[in-house]
Design brief:
about 375 residues; four-stranded antiparallel beta sheet; about 5% strand; about 65% helix; 18 helices; alpha+beta
Amino acid sequence: MLDELISRATLAELAGSAAFQRGETYFSVGAVGPLIVAEDRVTARVEGGETYQVELRDDDGDLAHDCTCPRAADGYFCKHCVALGLAWLAENSASASGTKAGREPWRDIKDYLSTQTPESLIGLLLEVARRDERLYQSLLLKTEQAGEGGNVARAFRRAIDHATRVNGYVDWREVRKFAGNIDEVVDSLAELLKPDTATLLVDLAEYAIEQVENSLEQVDDSNGEIGGIVCRLGELHVQACTMARPDPADLAERLFELETTLPFGVCSFDVKTYRDALGNAGLLRYRELVETEWRKLKPRTAQDGYDYQRAKITRIMEQVAEASGDVDELVAIKSQDLTRGYHYLEIAEIWTKAGQPEKALDWAERGLA
């Protein structure tokens, strides 16, 4: 689809005249590195004030773009994207006019590799791995999983520590590389989602989530890349727990700890998300834990300031009540904080949804008063 999406007119329209002209200059002086072309995307490095990683891709029939420069981070189609687009047009024009029209680089590479001996391929891969830290880590983890290494859990923890290590503040310019390193480890973790290794994945996913969340305190994740990776880890954890069936009480205790102690709480460790893995025994233990903390809280007054821990325990109690379907319990929980009219409205809406309009009217009138 790229040949239908990329044209000089499209690039000029997306970038505007000033950025398009600067992009032409970048292209004309050879600032665009070798193109890497897949079926629906083209990427390359573009040399500017710094080296920028640029990508153009087909997004459901629209030309989407990414660049690591500040202008693109603000949502603009930057001069580096223009330069990449012009380089792609030039390369395709040259291919079309030559004897190898329509060649696909990935297919050519695949055809070449298919003619090589295993020894040559191993040597080539090792050579690249020596220069590419992410590939090295991926191969190392695969080696451990295959039984060639000493300890799979230790190898994964070491890889997680390496990927999440932060030396100073990571600003938005560096986030893509930081996220890519973590994503590579998550790809390897996903390979453990099998019956014989699901128990290991439960522990490793928890460890990875904790390490990534702690690193977020020193990372500008304003575009949500790291948060998306944490959510992916959370999904893996749910799937692994459902597959491995750890002890329900132990699982409930770990989930409650994660839900109440992680600094950002990107993904949920609540009873609704883990209902199947917890079972009745786990749900009961989770309820015991949250009720213990809930009993320590007094009704909130208008003079009380915001209490983050109180808000968190209240939210968990509400989730437990919602999961059980006990409307009276849910109302009792929400009644502990009637410092704003909106809180009365919430309770009135609960009773309305439960099909009890008289109680809903009573709470609405109390809220108005």
